[in-house]
Design brief:
Layout (H helix, E strand, L loop, with lengths): L5 E6 L3 H12 L4 E5 L6 H6 L1 H18 L16 H26 L2 E4 L2 E5 L2 E4 L2 E10 L3 E3 L12 E2 L1 H4 L8 E5 L3 H12 L3 E5 L11 H13 L3 E3 L2 E8 L4 E7 L6 E5 L1 E4 L3 E3 L32 E3 L10 H15 L13 E3 L4 E6 L2 H7 L2 E7 L4 H5 L6 E7 L5 E8 L2 H13 L4 H5 L10 H11 L6
Parallel strand pairs: 1-2, 1-6, 2-3, 6-17, 8-15, 9-10, 9-15, 10-11
Antiparallel strand pairs: 4-5, 5-6, 7-16, 12-13, 13-14, 18-19, 19-22, 20-21, 21-22
Helix pairs in contact: 1-4, 1-8, 3-4, 3-6
The protein binds flavin-adenine dinucleotide (FAD) and 1,4-dihydronicotinamide adenine dinucleotide.
């Protein structure tokens, strides 16, 4: 009889966990995955990436019809919102994709253990009262919403991202607390559908972690779209009477308090690693000061046979980062050499236009050495201009001595797609000259990347 029930047991079936489980099974390991949700796919497929993009896509069409962008191209329509149908297509997208993971589990012979997993020892977990043993256990339990102290999320007037995806009617006034990725994406959805949106951000600029020029430009574009910003401001308290919330605001640096009322408040001030109920103490595994599980470069924790990946470990909380770590951890467990290059992880905000970046910001790059920067505005890109998409730019940051590209940032309608090229170039160690001398199809938005690369050492053609 085998010493363990499974070679690999993954806890959590988000993009990190389900990918790790499938790859482990593909590599011939007997694999199970414990998931406590009703459906597979984790935060990303159920209440994150996928439903938010379904609403962003649909609301973008609505906005284009309502704000005159379609009329500009000779298509005159007066849109009527059927919010229930819009939610319906969101639910369909989630259902199809989560069902798809269930199909992949069956196809690859991954056993889904339904229920919450908790450690008994380093090779044993309990799932729904059943003890299961495995030679290797991968913690992929993801993250949950960071609460605002003293504020209760009722998912009606005061909502988190999950509640903001399900609102049954368009709020009159939505206040978004936190000008990060969730606030800007979901704030955009409801602004497009007719809500007045105010974003309260603690820092003096939105989108922390993004390049400084990008943050400023994004702020300008969102303001133009009608989102009101209260930067350098903190919310110190919220009361709700069940239909209206009243917030107390104070300047972050201290000063006089003001109040703000809204019929919907979205709390989006970050997410935190989820180790709730895992009983890590039973295996002697402690978390760091931010509640995360620490690992080495191979995703091993300090406990032999226990590994961790995705949002529960340090690094950007992104689905593709979790997925790549899922592949790498399975390969490492199988004795191969799974690697994730954490220096080249793209980040995309799926607003209009999209905002994307990979590698170092100009600020960080300058801290590390001398750099050269090339920029090219989308207004001078023929395709963007033809499509009436003049906002944004591409910025390339290269090492001043070697010309190696260390960061690429873009605001453009399709920046999320464009950034893949930049990530690949950086993964291959490209110089700005390599990009500048690569033939790009015309007319495409990607030509702006080529021209920004030309601007690093010389002159672009079209400005
Ligand atoms: P998760 O997806 O959080 O999955 C962990 C799973 O583990 C969950 O299903 C949970 O139920 C399960 N679990 C936890 N504890 C246990 C236990 N003890 N036993 C059994 N199961 C357990 N990222 C992007 O890259 N692009 C996007 O566009 C994007 N959009 C987002 C939009 C929103 C609104 C949100 C909230 C997040 C978004 N993200 C996006 C972030 C992305 O969802 C996460 O980075 C990603 O889901 C992390 O994957 P994971 O596998 O580490 O964890
Ligand atoms: P975030 O970290 O992106 O932004 C949170 C913002 O809230 C920050 O700007 C912070 O300064 C501000 N803040 C914190 N406390 C505050 C307070 N008391 N008052 C006012 N502002 C305050 O976090 P967010 O938007 O909640 O997203 C969580 C994670 O989900 C992100 O880290 C991101 O990686 C992931 N995500 C990714 C998406 C994508 O890739 N497109 C989409 C949505 C989420």
């Amino acid at each position: 009889m085998a010493e363990y029930d499974y070679d690999v047991l993954v806890i959590g079936a988000g993009p990190g966990g389900y990918v790790a489980a499938i790859r482990a099974a593909q590599l011939g390991l007997k694999t199970a995955c414990a998931e406590s949700r009703e459906t597979l796919g984790g935060t990303c497929l159920n209440v994150g990436c996928i439903p938010s993009k379904a609403l962003l896509h649909a609301s973008e069409y609505f906005d284009a019809a309502a704000n005159g962008a379609m009329a500009k191209m000779g298509i005159k329509v007066t849109p009527e919102l059927d919010l229930e149908a819009m939610h319906g297509q969101r639910r369909d997208a989630v259902k199809q994709l989560t069902g798809g993971i269930e199909f992949l589990f069956k196809k690859n012979k991954v056993t889904w253990l339904k229920g919450r997993a908790a450690f008994e020892d380093a090779h044993t977990v309990t799932v729904a009262d059943q003890k299961v043993t495995a030679k290797n256990i991968v913690i992929a339990t993801g993250s949950t919403v960071t609460p605002l102290p003293g504020v209760e999320i009722d998912q009606k007037v005061i909502v988190d991202s999950t509640g903001a995806l399900e609102l049954p009617k368009v709020p009159e006034h939505m206040v978004v607390i936190g000008g990060g990725v969730i606030g800007l994406e979901l704030g955009s959805v409801w602004r497009r559908l007719g809500a007045k949106v105010t974003c309260v951000e603690f820092l003096d600029q939105i989108l922390p972690g993004f390049d400084g020029d990008i943050r400023k430009e994004a702020n300008k574009i969102f303001k133009k779209q009608g989102i009101e910003f209260k930067l350098g401001t903190k919310v110190t308290g919220i009361t709700s009477d069940g239909s209206t919330a009243t917030m107390t605001l104070e300047p972050a640096a201290g000063g006089e308090a003001t109040t703000l009322t809204a019929d919907c408040v979205l709390v989006s001030i970050g997410r935190r690693a989820n180790t709730d109920g895992l009983a890590l103490d039973k295996i002697g595994l402690s978390t760091n000061g931010r509640g995360q599980v620490e690992t080495d470069h191979d995703f091993r924790t300090s406990v032999d046979g226990v590994w961790a990946i995705g949002d529960v470990i340090p690094g950007p909380m992104l689905a593709h980062k979790a997925e790549d770590e899922g592949i790498a951890v399975a390969e490492n467990i199988a004795g191969q050499h799974g690697i994730v290059n954490h220096d080249v992880i793209p980040s995309v905000v799926y607003t209009w236009p999209e905002i994307a970046g990979v590698g170092l910001t100009e600020e960080l790059a300058r801290e590390q050495g001398e750099v050269k920067v090339g920029k090219f505005p989308m207004m001078a890109n023929s395709r963007a201009k033809t499509n009436h998409e003049p906002d944004g730019f591409v910025k390339i940051i290269a090492d001043a001595k070697t010309d190696r590209v260390v960061g690429v940032w873009a605001i453009a309608s399709v920046a999320g797609t464009m950034i893949a090229q930049a990530a690949q170039a950086m993964e291959f160690g490209a110089t700005s000259e390599d990009i500048a001398y690569t033939c790009h199809a015309h007319p495409t938005h990607s030509e702006a990347i080529k021209e920004a690369a030309m601007a690093v050492t010389g002159k672009p053609i079209h400005i």
